[in-house]
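Look at one record.

>
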Amino acid sequence: MTKCVICEQRPANGGGFCVQCGNRIDAERKAKAKNEPRYFLTYRGEVVGLFPNGGKVLRARLLRRSAEKLPKGKTVNLDHYCVGYSRDIIKRFKSCVLHLSHA
């Protein structure tokens, strides 16, 4: 039976680490992972990113980026008509962008 290469106390599984040390390494990797926005909202030249915040909840954050360089598939331009979104959702998106830009 082989020992863990980190703590040298507990038995190692297939990766050479014990379960506790392996979980700690996975947690560190997840913490270092770059958090990319799922969607971008643009309105009156302001850009807001919608970031995943666990589950189905998205957290809005103002970004200092140019609207021209954003990926088209993830961008919702609120200056023009948006297909597939209800009027209520568009109002909430616009108020979110304006609230973050003037805060």
About this structure: The chain has two domains: 1-33, 39-102. The beta strands are 39-43, 46-52, 58-63, 75-77. Helices lie at 19-32, 87-102. The longest strand covers residues 46-52.
